[in-house]
Amino acid sequence: MCWPWYRVVPEAPATPRRLGVAYALCVALGLLGAHRFYLGHHGLGVAYALLTVVGLASASWGIGFLFGALVLLLLLLDLLRLPGLVRRANGQYWTD
Fold first, then answer.
1. For 5-40, how does the pLDDT look when each residue is reduced to its tens digit (9 = 90+)?
2. What is the Cα Rg of the chain in Å?
3. Contact, 38 vs 28, CB < 8 A?
């Protein structure tokens, strides 16, 4: 057995997160990271918003598409991973 011998499991939020709301936020306001804020991933929400703002600000220099492509790729990945992210935000983990 390796260290640590226990697993710290964060508590579930007071109000459970809903998959439909997470999908709606991802589709409508995903470029600003609204779905990540909703799930409690505030750092990633800020990262999405910053990448979007920097991409829009640098669009006139011709490099904004790189930031936009990165954010769109992350959004597509999030759309696939959203059910698991919602389960994890609600404190539901796979147990062995």
1. 555 555 666 789 999 999 999 999 999 999 999 999
2. 16
3. no
